[in-house]
Specification:
It is built from 3 helices and 31 strands. The protein has 505 residues and is mainly β. Belongs to the glycosyl hydrolase 28 family.
Length: 505
């Protein structure tokens, strides 16, 4: 009985030991499988989502063996390191040659079509290349916002007549865009001499030429312009284009670039809101016809500053529909000065208000600051401030001309654009013809014209000299002037008619 019990005990002990060992191994195996499965699952999830470790119970720790980020396949081009490569559209990548001979218009169109689809894209015209581009429109309104036109190279216009057909009003045009910026160190060259040579002498000329009489009493005409006839390919059309035009756009910026030798006007803004131009250069001969530097029409909230403008017409021309315009720190010359108008042509209504022009240097220009309107017009110009204008050998530094006429003869009419609140302050320097010319309408005299700190000295050159002239101009002299401007009438006109509805703006 005792032996049996011992064997039973021994057998049961061995069986129990084996069972216990088996259970321990099974437990560790299960725990091992569970750990491996968890690891595999997490790794798979990490690969799938990429950022799943950021959501692991609020922990931001990263796996120790995460793979390094891949390098971009298209790194940003040199000079545009702060611009993502996916938003850069270089015209050379779209087939532009840039040799100054091959027509690159289609390449520019293709590059714009691509850039137009991407918000805040950069359209690149690279430096050290010359691109021959025909008439082209960089158009919205379905383009994305805030596109940058990075102009570091040179764009030249074709000089053969067939490229222009019967004539166009613009060469490079941006229309219906929001947040468009044209910037860089590049040049837009209109090669305008082939257009200027075909300008007939009966083309509209600046009417203030009638006030400038040479000492030898010969008629004053534009001198012949030297031409390179080898550039031309037939007679150019009579309609001359503007070099760079913006139409119907919001928040427009132009900076850094140069426009030279434009066919007609250099830079134009039509129906734009929020315009900024600075560090901008215009370079054309003083005898290039009708080549305004900057032309504004139906545009508001405009800032033009820190720029150099040399051209054959107005350095800055402000037309109807403009309000809240601020022009300062401008070098103007050669050219015809800074002008509001001409306004009211062909009995039209003109509305201009809140214009400030200050801190301007003018050298060898026809006019300094002026307002010019046609007889027969309606509407008003009010709230104009010309301040701190330095003139050097300027023919007519201060001008209001309500009898403007760029034809050989214009008929007299009674209605006129009403002028009020016109201020001339700190206008100093030298003149060669007449210091002040204020010719206002008989039926609508100028009101609230003020002159403060006017110091203008004559330089006898090749023109007849004249004293200050005023007609139907009412206002006040706040300080003595040099020369004395005794012709200004103090107060208000006694018989001034009340503006009708057609005069109100």
């Amino acid at each position: 009985m005792g032996g049996f019990s011992f064997r039973n005990f021994t057998f049961m002990f061995i069986v129990a030991f084996l069972v216990w060992s088996s259970n321990v191994e099974t437990c560790y195996a299960r725990r091992g499988r569970h750990w491996r499965q968890t690891t595999t699952s997490s790794a798979s999830l990490y690969k799938k989502k990429g950022k799943s470790h950021h959501h692991n119970n609020g922990s931001k720790s990263k796996p120790k063996h995460s793979s390094p980020p891949s390098m971009p396949t298209n790194p940003p081009r040199k000079g545009y390191d702060d611009v993502p490569s996916s938003t850069i559209f270089d015209v050379r990548s779209f087939g532009a040659t840039g040799d100054g001979k091959t027509d690159d218009t289609k390449a520019f169109q293709a590059a714009w079509a691509a850039a137009c689809k991407v918000e805040a894209s950069t359209f690149v015209v690279p430096s050290q290349y010359v691109f021959l581009v025909g008439p082209i429109s960089f158009s919205g309104p379905y383009c994305q916002h805030n596109i940058v036109f990075q102009l570091d190279g040179t764009i030249i216009a074709p000089v053969d007549a067939k490229s222009w057909g019967s004539g166009l009003m613009q060469w490079l045009e941006f229309t219906k865009l929001v947040g468009i910026t044209v910037k860089g160190s590049g040049v837009i060259d209109g090669r305008g001499s082939v257009w200027w040579q075909d300008t007939p002498y009966d083309d509209p000329l600046d009417d203030e030429l009638k006030l400038i009489i040479p000492l030898n009493k010969t008629s004053l005409r534009y001198p012949p312009i030297p031409l390179n006839s080898s550039l031309g390919g037939g007679k150019m059309p009579s309609i001359k284009p503007t070099a760079l035009r913006f139409y119907g756009s919001f928040n427009v910026t132009v900076t850094g670039i140069t426009i030279q030798n434009s066919q007609q006007c250099h830079l134009k803004f039509d129906n734009c809101i929020g315009v900024t131009v600075y560090n901008f250069t215009v370079s054309s001969p003083g005898d290039s016809p009708n080549t305004d530097g900057i032309h504004l029409q139906n545009s508001k909230d405009v800032l033009i500053r820190s720029s150099n403008i040399a051209c054959g017409d107005d350095c800055v021309s402000i037309q109807t529909g403009c309000t809240n315009v601020y022009v300062h720190n401008i070098n103007c010359g050669p050219g015809h000065g800074i002008s509001i108008g001409s306004l009211g042509k062909d009995n039209t209504k003109a509305c201009v208000s809140n214009i400030t022009v200050k801190d301007v240097v003018m050298q060898n220009t026809m006019n300094g600051v002026r307002i010019k309107t046609w007889q027969g017009g309606s509407g008003s110009v009010q709230g104009v401030f010309f301040s701190n204008i330095q003139v050097s050998e300027v023919q007519l530094p201060i001008v209001i001309d309500q009898f403007y006429c760029d034809k050989s003869k214009c008929k007299n009419q009674t209605s006129a654009v009403a002028l009020s609140g016109i201020n001339f302050e700190r206008i100093r320097g030298t003149y060669t013809v007449k210091p002040v010319h204020l010719a206002c309408s008989d039926s609508m005299p100028c009101q609230d014209v003020t002159l403060t700190d006017i110091q203008l000295k004559p330089i006898q050159e090749r023109y007849h000299m004249y004293d200050p002239y005023c007609w139907q101009t009412f206002g006040e002299l706040y300080t003595p002037t040099l020369p004395p401007i005794d012709c200004l009438q103090v107060g208000k006109p006694s018989s001034n008619r009340i503006q009708g509805d057609h005069d109100q703006c």
